[in-house]
Specification:
single chain, Rossmann fold, 5-stranded parallel beta sheet, 34% helix, 24% strand, elongated, binds flavin mononucleotide
Length: 403
């Protein structure tokens, strides 16, 4: 699910610089191209090799290196997003004055990308009138200031000034990027609360084994990312995802169908939209053994008794609040397009959801693939959308139904 943006992570000289490694990693895992610009002071706190290995790019510090490629402006011009974390009192003061005596200052001045800073310093430095005035100036100019939080500081003391957690910073940065992508306008799903399930359930047999399915969770995660970028507040009920969950959604983990039903039912109470993209096991073992099933005890064949799981989608559709939209997914192996459509229509009628997203799965299609091809049926069985392409573009088409 590569979103492929160019992100500059500026790191300055505070103890919290070690946490910036996780910020760099989060963007890399999203598929972004990440360039670290560290101040010389930052590299006293966190090692260049660590940052280069995690960012998969050289770390830039020196204003007078790479002069032939005009690096002091090139990095800033190429950035879609700049995140400075931690931001020291010193760097904040320099940014407020528009100083450019190091590579980071030049990069930021040369960029029109959204700028997000995460201050980190001792409480006294944070409360100092100079710092407060500098932060206020930056805010007025549209800089997004994340935190600082209150808590344990470097020494035994605690108070305001602790850098926000990396996940929170990344989430705020992605929200700022989405706003910038829309030219500052609110997204078409702003104010909507969307609950999405993704992945595949695992039904335990014994402490080490389960019955599962091949759903990677990519389509559900793409839906979550796309919905957040369009301004929605998203709860992602994640069942054994093979891809990282987005950092800017409320992730609730679910292992089995029973877990997923509980999590979805709870989250549905507050939802405007429910999207059941997870592949849920229709059956679970009647008995979950307390100890590992042993070959010696079972012989050459093992007969399992399975019992039906509840139909979560039908249950959510039946219990929906007025105005709540329920979207289900149906993955089928029927190769004949007409018969596939027929199966989808029967399912749409049976499940009672507003829309059913019908897609073909098989040994090579659907699961784990970067692409998808879907037809979306309404409750009467009419095709309202046909979409194919990356799972992100399919996600956008499905969300278009809502706006
Ligand atoms: C051990 C140690 C920890 C520091 N931690 C912080 C900090 O958390 N926040 C801060 O604003 N300055 C901190 N400083 C001071 C900065 O390193 C110093 O102001 C430096 O000039 C910042 O440079 P830079 O903004 O170019 O990275 C610390 C200094 C030391 C020696």
């Amino acid at each position: 699910m590569s979103s492929g943006r160019t992100v500059v992570v500026g790191i300055t000289g505070g103890i919290a610089a070690y946490k910036a490694v996780n910020i760099v990693r989060a963007f890399v895992l999203r598929g972004d191209s990440v360039h670290v610009v560290a101040t010389p002071a930052a590299l006293r706190f966190v090692g260049r090799p660590t940052l280069e290995a995690i960012s998969r790019n050289p770390v830039h510090t020196d204003l007078y290196e790479g002069v032939a490629e005009v690096r002091h402006v090139a990095i800033g011009q190429s950035a879609d997003l700049i995140v400075v974390a931690p931001a020291t009192a010193n760097t904040i003061a320099k940014l407020a004055c528009g100083l450019a005596d190091d590579l980071l200052g030049n990069t930021i001045l040369a960029s029109t990308a959204p700028l997000v800073i995460a201050p980190a310093m001792h409480t006294e430095m944070w409360n100092n009138a100079a710092t407060r005035a500098n932060v206020a100036t930056l805010r007025e100019r549209g800089v997004v200031v994340v935190g600082p939080g209150t808590g344990r500081l470097t020494g035994a003391d605690s108070g305001a000034g602790r850098m926000e957690e990396p996940d929170t910073i990344v989430a705020a940065a992605l929200a700022a990027l989405a706003v910038a992508d829309r030219g500052g306008a609110a997204g078409d799903l702003a104010g909507k609360r969307i609950v999405i399930s993704a992945g595949g359930t695992r039904e335990p047999l014994d402490p080490v084994r389960f019955l599962g399915n091949r759903s990677s969770g990519k389509q559900g995660v793409a839906l979550a990312e796309a919905a957040v970028a369009r301004g929605a507040e998203v709860v992602l009920v994640a069942a054994n995802l093979e891809v990282p969950a987005p950092t800017n959604v409320d992730v609730r983990l679910a292992g089995s169908a029973a877990d997923l039903e509980r999590a979805m039912t709870e989250a549905a109470a507050e939802a405007d939209v429910i999207i059941m993209a997870a592949a849920v096991a229709d059956y679970r073992p009647a008995e979950v053994r307390a100890d590992k099933i042993k070959k010696d005890d079972t012989g050459d064949t093992l007969v399992l008794t399975l019992v039906r799981n509840p139909d979560i989608l039908a249950g959510l559709a039946a219990a929906r609040k007025p105005g709540q939209v329920v979207i289900g997914f149906a993955a089928e192996t029927e190769a004949d397009p007409e018969l596939l459509l027929q199966l989808g229509r029967e399912k749409a009628a049976r499940k009672g959801c507003d829309y059913l997203v019908l897609n073909m799965v098989g040994w090579t299609e659907g699961f784990a693939s970067e692409r998808n091809e879907v037809r979306v049926l309404n409750r009467h069985g009419d095709i309202v959308i046909e979409a194919s392409g990356s799972k992100m573009s399919v996600a956008e088409s499905i969300l278009d139904l809502l706006s």
